[in-house]
Amino acid sequence: VQLTESGGGLVQPGGSLRLSCAASGFAFSGAAMRWYRQAPGKERGLVASITGAGDSTYYADSVKGRFTISRDNAKNTVYLQMNSLKPEDTAVYYCQTPSLRAYWGQGTQVTVSS
Fold first, then answer.
1. Nearest to 89, CA basis, from 50, 32, 36
2. Which of 55-64's residues contact partners 24+ apart within 8 Å by CB, and which partners?
3. How far is CA 76 from the centre of its chain?
4. In the chain, what's the furthest Cα-to-Cα distance?
5. What is the per-residue pLDDT for 2?
6. CA-CA distance, 90 to 102, in Å (whole number)?
């Protein structure tokens, strides 16, 4: 199982980023996928999730209306479009499939700062 996150960076408040997570080693199209984030000194928390078919999504209250999770099963990739970014969105972002909870990628750093 491999999960490779990318797309992070430094962005000003109000800006946007699109994160990608390339997955391999499991049946991606049948697997729900989740994005988590971990800020310095805080526990890792769930940001968004999407079903295998992409027909149902969940968002944490803190990102609802600003972030959009999506997936491309032909590319074994899940995305997180992040708009209207705030300094409190600064964290390392990780993807995971709940059916294989032990596996995590290296994460991608998102820093929101002026």
1. 36
2. 62/88, 63/89
3. 14
4. 41
5. 96
6. 24
User: How confident is residue 57, by pLDDT bands cut at 50, 70 and 90?
Assistant: very high
Mean pLDDT for 78-93 is 98
Do 105 and 44 meet the contact criterion of CB atoms below 8 Å apart?
A: no
Q: How many other C-beta atoms lie within 10 A of the C-beta of residue 3?
A: 22
Query: What confidence score (pLDDT) does residue 111 get?
Result: 98
- CA 63 remoteness from chain centre: 11
For residue 24, give the nearest of 92, 100, 80 by alpha carbon: 100
- The predicted-structure confidence for 22-38, as pLDDT tens digits, reads as follows 999 999 998 999 999 99
Residue 99's CB is within 10 A of a number of other CB atoms, namely 13
The closest alpha carbon to 49, from 65, 69, 22, 67, belongs to 69
